[in-house]
């Protein structure tokens, strides 16, 4: 029995139709709906910018080792997001230009890596989504161990296989599989409310009375 060195069968994933609905929703709005306590602030976009979304194909690997990430690319279905728990260690890169090119060719939606990448210039020049914690010139090892399709932690954010990953220039969020439909509906309503607020500002009809009402309620004093 190999402890910590296994490939598990995927049992569920969010639907492509639901992923498409999330494409129109800012991560900031989703974060608000999720009580502003979800997600990670440490991983940043390493590509030139743009949205990432899709079901999580999870990988847990020994820091600095990418053998199981290679296998995850081979197993990935079009639209999957490969999410790698590399322990947040930044010494060795987990992927670079070759692996990102291979994943893009296979139809992978993108990478989320709690670890480093390299070939940062090439990745930054492209549109293939890569979110990571850092950059390192040192290459990875390929010895294992690791697991695929297991629960992982990305900077404290729990990700289960098949959960929805969404990311944009503001950061990365995991939407739990069982909550994805409800959170989508709430976020669509939140986005509509914010769009209405923007239109009121542009039209000069925004009601700002709530600011003074909040200050009064909280006991703020106005002094000369």
3D architecture notes:
It is elongated, with a radius of gyration of 20 Å. Helices cover 32% and strands 25% of the residues. It has one domain (7-186): Glucose Oxidase, domain 1. The strands form 2 sheets. Strands 1, 2, 3, 4, 5, 6, 7, 8, 11 and 12 form a 10-stranded mixed beta sheet that branches. A two-stranded antiparallel sheet has the order 9-10. The mean pLDDT is 96. It is of the alpha/beta class and 224 residues long. It is built from 7 helices and 12 strands. It has helices at 16-22, 27-33, 67-75, 97-106, 120-125, 180-203, 209-217; strands spanning 5-7, 44-45, 52-61, 81-85, 93-95, 110-117, 130-135, 146-148, 152-154, 157-159, 164-168, 171-175.
- The count of domains is 1
Q: Biggest sheet: strands, sense, closure?
A: 10 strands, mixed
User: SSE order, as H and E?
Assistant: EHHEEHEEHEHEEEEEEHH
Q: Segments where pLDDT lies below 50 for 5+ residues?
A: none
- Going by helix content, strand content and strand pairing, the class is alpha/beta
CATH architecture: 3-Layer(bba) Sandwich
Tally of helical segments: 7
Distance between the termini: 75 Å
State the CATH superfamily name. Ribonuclease E inhibitor RraA/RraA-like
Global outline: elongated
CATH level 1 class label = Alpha Beta
Mean pLDDT: 96
Q: What would you call the quaternary organization? A: single chain
**DSSP strand content:** 25-35%
CATH topology: Glucose Oxidase, domain 1
* Helix percent band: 25-40%
Give the tally of β-strands: 12
Measured on Cα atoms, how large is the radius of gyration?
20 Å
GO molecular function: metal ion binding
Protein name: Putative 4-hydroxy-4-methyl-2-oxoglutarate aldolase
Binding site for substrate: 96-99, 118
Cofactor: a divalent metal cation; Mg(2+)
